[in-house]
Amino acid sequence: IRFNRSGTATVLSGAINQGQGHETVFKQLVCDRLGLEFDETYYTQGDTDLISFGQGTGGSRSATIGGSALLLASDKIIQKARQIAAHLLEAAVADIDFEEGVFSIAGTDRRITIKEVAKAAAVPGKLPSGLEPGLNAQAVYNATEMNFPNGCHVVEVEIDQETGAVDVISYNVVDDVGTVMNPALLKGQIQGGVGQGLGQALMEDLCYDAGTGQNLTSSFLDYAIPRADDFSAINVKSNPVPTETNPLGVKGAGEAGNVGALPAVSNAVVDALSEFGVTHIEMPATSERVWQVINKLP
Fold first, then answer.
1. Strand partners, 173
2. Where do the H-state alpha helices sit in the chain?
3. Of 27, 168, 181, 235, which residue is least crowded by CB atoms under 10 Å?
């Protein structure tokens, strides 16, 4: 985290966004911790000239590792800024409180904002003796323990006996991903994962010419990927149980939708086909494959 001379701040991250919304949730984390305005906080990722550490997105580890690193960096910022605030307010460091971006002397109305402290930090003459200019902090977080999300997926399907087509009627998810940092982003990730799982379970298939081995589904014109009209609305609820394996209490969310969807959808299809004596069906359960199973064809 690097404060500029104007009092604005830049968040630099080694975790790379692939659509998860790092630029939103990481800024929210820092702004909430430091009491900063969202539109005065900037986000930079993956620039090796500016960021010396980083190993890509890390999938579900982004919030755990990247978020925890930003939390530690924020605490370092507060620690140094408290010393500067105490000097500017002519008070002992132990008497300085920090809340909602404001440093104040306990029991008085004397206060100074973190933005004002950041501006003063750029002027050596305004700093206490022995403190280097600038209000910047860097932190690296190493996870020593794994954590795992958990949840329940319930899906209802209907199958057309004449065509074998599978229709997803309803889909409900309750997931525990620990602390929910951004409900909208979480819901989007779960829904996207469910969509991927539905596609893999019901339609996505690589087909090859039996004679030549030529891939017949080599483009999205031929390869069936799911669209919105291929399944129902996906109802997502959270049952957060924060974990003690990291400072934020977060668990992975990125793969939760897909991992839950595959067995839930496959089991629903098998259950619907149980009256035909079906106990297993290979993925993807395309209409052709389902029709063959119903009609007991090889």
1. 153, 236
2. 22-34, 61, 68-89, 114-121, 183-202, 256-272, 287-294
3. 235
